[in-house]
Amino acid sequence: MTGLLNLLSSAVQFIGQALMVLGLVNVGLTLKDGTTGGGGQLSGAVAMIVAGGCIFAVARMVHAT
């Protein structure tokens, strides 16, 4: 069971990191567009970064125990 949790937590950590990277790319594209992008896209990108960080942190805590 521990081996399965370690395997799954590694996969979930990767998903969290991928969400953070995609959020950062989305922030960059939104800032590149300037004022035409709107606040909705920027807040969605920041939410994606925060969600990816939370997913990564929880997976890291599960992996540590």
Structure characteristics:
65 residues; mainly alpha; 0% strand; rod-shaped
Structural summary, described in words:
The protein has helices spanning 2-33, 38-64. With 65 residues, the chain is mostly helical. It has one domain (2-64). Helix 1 (2-33) packs antiparallel against helix 2. It is rod-shaped. The chain starts with a helix and ends with a helix.
In short:
The chain has 65 residues and is mostly helical. It has helices at 2-33, 38-64.
List the helices and strands and how they pair.
Layout: H1 2-33, H2 38-64
Helix pairs in contact: 1-2
Mean pLDDT: 86
Largest sheet data = none
Distance between the termini: 12 Å
Order of helices and strands: HH
Helical segment tally?
2
Quaternary arrangement of the chains shown? Answer: single chain
Helix/sheet category: mainly alpha
| Parts with pLDDT < 50 across at least 5 consecutive residues | none
- Helical proportion, percent range: over 70%
Assign an overall shape: rod-shaped
Q: Find the count of extended strands (DSSP E, 2+ residues).
A: 0
SS strand fraction: under 5%
Radius of gyration over all CA atoms, rounded: 15 Å
